[in-house]
Amino acid sequence: MRTLRFIFNFYLNASIHVALAVISLLGVTSLVLEIPLNLSLFGFVFFGTIVCYNFVKYGVEAKKYLVVMNAYHKNIQALSFFCFGLAVYFLIHLDRKIWVAVLGLGLISCLYAIPLLPKTKNLRSLGGFKIYIVALVWVGFTVLLPVLDNELDISWDLKILFLQRFILVVALILPFEIRDLQWDDPEIKTLPQIFGIYKTRMLGVILMVVFFLLTFLKDNLIGVEISMRLLVSVLLIIVFLQRDRVPRKYFASFWVEGIPILWFGIYWSLKNLY
């Protein structure tokens, strides 16, 4: 039992679960746009997410990321370096036209944790910007990259997809901000710090209603897409109505982050079934 708990905690702490969530959103994009599932892109985004998230969580200072004393964190560090090598391998197999986008998204991710200049703040410390920066990067990796990879024109429906994905990621982050309220530096000015927990939860509900209603603004719409967006909206609304469970240890890091994985799994099954 203790071994299983260790493996489960390592799975979460090493950012493997969040990486699965990110590539699940990438998979949803491929299904919605009816474009091929590029295994090289999936591999790069999966392993790159592990590296990026572990760097943000454990490498706020570069020296801390390279010189690790704790044995548990050494294992995460070793995994991160291994994943970095795999991310580079898959990136090499991608078309060079998306390398510029990857460079830009990677730079934003680095500046999120490390200041550009000495004695300056990183992007995470800029009051009120944290949640939007994370959402922007997720949108970039899960929508922009497959669009560039398939050389798609920016249509009206695609603009709706960009907006919906941004709203969804913001909503997915809110439970984490509520959970981390007691630990976050007041200077970060997260939404729970500004509005309080109740108003933040209600904001989450409103965001999911908007997320779902935007679906009906698309020019090309199929029933399965409506059903899937309704499912995701209902699940997250239920999350925001769980007043006592959000602060719990695994509620956000496993269950909330697992919603995109569930979304892709069901969506993929339905698309292949019909």
Determine the number of helices (DSSP H or I, runs of at least 4 residues). Answer: 13
- The N- and C-terminal alpha carbons lie at a distance of 41 Å
Backbone CA Rg: 19 Å
As a percent range, the share of strand residues is under 5%
In total, the number of strands is: 0
- Overall structural class, as computed from helix and strand content, comes to mainly alpha
Question: Which consecutive residue ranges, at least 5 long each, have pLDDT under 50?
Answer: 61-65
| Largest beta-sheet details | none
The tally of structural domains comes to: 1
Transmembrane segments: 12-33, 39-56, 76-92, 98-117, 129-148, 160-178, 198-216, 222-241, 250-270
Protein name: Prenyltransferase
Organism: Flagellimonas pacifica
Keywords: Membrane, Transmembrane, Transmembrane helix
